[in-house]
Every structure is written in structure tokens, then in C-alpha cells.
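A further point concerns the way the authors explain their paired sequence and structure data. An entry of this sort, consisting of the sequence and the corresponding C-alpha cells, reads as follows:
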Amino acid sequence: MTTPAPKVFVSYSHDSEVHNSWVLNLATRLVANGVEVILDQWDLNLGSDLPRFMEYGLSEADRVLAICSQHYVRKANEGLGGVGYEKMILTAQLMQNIRSEKIIPVIRNNNQDKLVPTFLSSRLYIDFRDDAAYEEKYAALIGEIHGQKVRPKPPLGRNPFMALSVSACVDAGRYGNAINAIRDLTKSGQHQAAVEAATYLCTKRGTAADWGVLFQACRRSNEEFRSKIYPSVIQSAEEWLNGPKYESRAQTLASLLTLLRIMDDRARFWQIYHSRVQDADKRGNEFILAEYAQMLRQDDKDKYVVEWIPTYEALPERLRQNDLLKKLYLQALLDQGTVSLEKIKAALQNTNNEKFKADLLKRIETLSEERGRPASGV
């Protein structure tokens, strides 16, 4: 889809032929650079309605260039002529939206103390008085109109002290503060600092929450950085799982499996899953169960249908009421191709997630219509 050209109205006073030619040349170059310019010198004909032209142009334009020559400033302040009329319209627009950046004051042929009219005195202007600096000023003006800054703001960099402060929190036993700081680093895009701080936290304590923030920082980092740190993060997690700290092994393992699934590292996912997940984990940890089912469907949909349906149906009632596990079960029923409405209705019993129910019923209705049978009774 093509982006519409920005529309600019040029407001100026007819000081002299030289000044008019300068305005015409500026407008012509803007048009050549993809700006739709409304200018009296080519948009007005003999007999044209001047007030209507000014009202329409000023209301339709995205930006207004106010060419603030000495005469323009005087006429605007005194309310004289066409400039005074345009000033009245623009003032009304500014009163409706005081924060508007629609008007760009352009200084030209003005050596007075008052470079802009009073109604534009708070607006940042661009100075075109020095012809030697014309190209530099024009580049800034055309960039502003097209929304492309000549000097764009750089992306937020890494706080060199944040990782140090996280380490200090860890050493002082303020683990909650450390986790919050790591999450802030991740949200702000300071991925390297977040991973380094989270790694330090994991080596010092290593609970499920600690490994969770490390895996999250790894997942959210950019692809180039993630490819560098991913192997070492996985290796560190496996070494920790082999160590003496077992109190949060299942939760950490679930977080690790999430990372592997999101990274689509299928071989390592199944290698770790089969070597580390015991029957007790399969029966008792909903997070591991969810990762198992999601990767199974991602890896082999037919196998997912065959294995997950009986696995879910054999779960304790507590786990069968988990909305995510139930959703994966119902998805398996849908993938099976022979949808049992009674099974789906039974699975929906005692589910408190109303949005989940509504979404599922909508999908069942669509599927039923495709297969030529009513979805009544669901």
C-alpha cells in the first residue's frame, strides 16, 4: 500500500518578485521530493475565491510553512491582508490543539528582533536567511515533512551500572529486587546486560524464578545475540539440573523446555525431555505437560492426536481442569477429524474462562458448518 504524500500549505507575503521567486523555487523542490504543495502561484486563477482558497488549504494541509519575512511578521501581528486572514485561521486551529506541530515557521528576509509573529512565538523555527546554509536547512525541512529526522534519536543503550546493581542485590540477598531489575533490563531491550545479570543470579541461587528470568531474557533478545548466548545458556541450565539443588527442578525444567520449544530446537527438546522427565513429572506438573503437548503438536500432529488424548484423559481431575491442558486436549480432538461434541461439552464443564469457552464454541460451529452438520446442542 502506497503511503499518501504529505500535503503542505505555504503561507507567505508578496514582498517582492525576488521573494516570490524564492518561495516558488522552494515549493517546486518540495514537490519534486514527494510533497504535495498548495501554493497560490499555481493553485489560484483569475476570479478564484481567495478566502475559500486559504480556508481550504489551511484545513486540508498536514503541515503549514509560514515564511516569516519581516513584512509577513508585521502583517500577521497587525491582522493585515491575506496574511492576517490566514493568521486568524491558524490561531483558531492552535486554540483547538495547543500541542499541534502543524505550523513550521521558516525565517527568510528578516533581520528584526521579532523573527516570528506573536502567535508563533513559542514554536521552533528553521532559519533560511543564510543562503550558504540552504542545503543543510532544506535537508532538515524535507526530513521533518516526511517524518525522517536528519539526526534521528539513537536507540536506548545499556546502563553500565545496572548489572553491577543487580549483582549487589544478589550478594545482599535481595533476590526480589534483582529479579525486578533483570525484568526491567529485558523490557528496555538491554538484553546482554539482562542475560549477564540473570546468569549471575542463577549461579548464586538458581531457583525456578531465577532460571525463568534468564530464559525470558534469552528469548526476547535479538536473533544475532541469541544465537551467541543460546548454547551457553542451555549448557548452564543442564549443568545446574545435574547439580545438588533439586527443590525447583520441575519448574526449571519446564522453563527450559519452553525456551527449547520457542527456539524450535526439537532434537534437544526431546533429548532433555526423555532423559529428565520422569513419570511423576508427567503426572504432576502442568507446565511440563503443557510443553510436552505443544512440542508434540509442533513436531508431529498425528502423533500429538494419538498420544495426547489418552494422556490427558488419564490425568488427575486437578490437572484436567487446567485451561491450557484442556485447550490442548480439545485441539487434539479437533485435529483428530472426528469431533465428539459430547466429549467437548464434557470438557467444558467447570471451566471458568469464558473467553476460552466462547472461542472454542466458535471454532466448533465453524468446523461443523464446513462438515455440513449443525452445531446445535454445544
Remarks:
- The first strand starts at residue 7 and ends at 11.
- The chain has two domains: 7-145, 162-320.
- The chain has 20 helices and five strands.
- The two ends are 42 Å apart (CA to CA).
